[in-house]
UniProtKB/TrEMBL annotation:
PANTHER family: POTASSIUM-TRANSPORTING ATPASE C CHAIN, POTASSIUM-TRANSPORTING ATPASE KDPC SUBUNIT. The gene is kdpC. The lineage of its organism: Bacteria, Pseudomonadati, Pseudomonadota, Betaproteobacteria, Burkholderiales. Pfam families: KdpC. Belongs to the KdpC family. This is Potassium-transporting ATPase KdpC subunit. It comes from Collimonas fungivorans (strain Ter331).
Length: 224
């Protein structure tokens, strides 16, 4: 009876097979934790964190989380964060906007990038100065710089108190209101410095014009 023969690999082949097996095991040992980490971070950062931040924002800061929208009589008027163009002489005017193809285009935020010596900037400032003087010829107050220059974002919804006070006389005349009434509206909607020292006192143009409309409506029955 012949004994079963045992096949023995040469030492070189044994070493090679050992290296292949070790390499596969090492790859599996690295790949599995990497996949687990990838999936875990995706769920944590891509699902749990955004939902948690959104939920906290809506619970603690519902107005800001929703875009600081202004709704009047159930109709969306705009946002406190994005300026709107006002050109009628019975409204407060905001800052110039250099966005294209239209002013205050939230999809194309940006400034004119004109330097202080650029002729185009000088012409734009002169044009706005002329428009302000034509709308209120008797106004001798100095024209605030934010009424004749564009903001860096092109979406600035606010003007300085000086810019609002400068326009008060024209607004009062056009609306048949007293200057004191218009000044009162500006003061009542004044936004103070953040934390007491960030930024400058200012007023939101859209909110101010909406308050102006309400004040005019209240004045009409008394005038009749």
């Amino acid at each position: 009876m012949k004994s079963a023969s045992t096949t023995t690999l040469p030492p070189a082949k044994l070493a090679a097979n050992s290296k292949v097996t070790t390499s596969k095991t090492a790859s599996q040992g690295v790949l599995r934790p990497a996949l687990v980490l990838f999936v875990s971070l995706t769920v944590l950062c891509g699902v749990i964190y955004p939902l948690a931040v959104t939920g906290i924002g809506k619970a603690v800061f519902p107005d800001q989380a929703s875009g600081s929208l202004i709704v009047q009589n159930g109709k969306l008027i705009g946002s406190r964060l994005i300026g709107q163009e006002f050109s009628a002489t019975n409204y407060f005017w905001g800052r110039l906007s250099a966005t294209s193809p239209m002013p205050y285009n939230a999809q194309a935020s940006g400034g004119s990038n004109f330097g202080p010596s650029n002729p185009a900037l000088i012409d734009a400032v002169k044009g706005r100065v002329d428009a302000l003087k034509a709308a209120d010829p008797g106004n001798t107050l100095p024209i605030p710089v934010d009424l004749v220059t564009a903001s860096g974002s092109g979406l600035d919804p606010e003007i300085s108190l000086a810019a609002a006070y400068y326009q008060a006389g024209r607004i009062a005349r056009e609306r048949k209101l007293s200057v004191d009434t218009v000044h009162g509206l500006i003061d009542s909607l004044q936004l103070r410095r953040s934390l007491g020292f960030f930024g400058e006192p200012r007023v939101n143009v859209l909110a101010l014009n909406l308050a102006l409309d309400r004040a005019t409506q209240r004045q009409q029955p008394a005038a009749n």
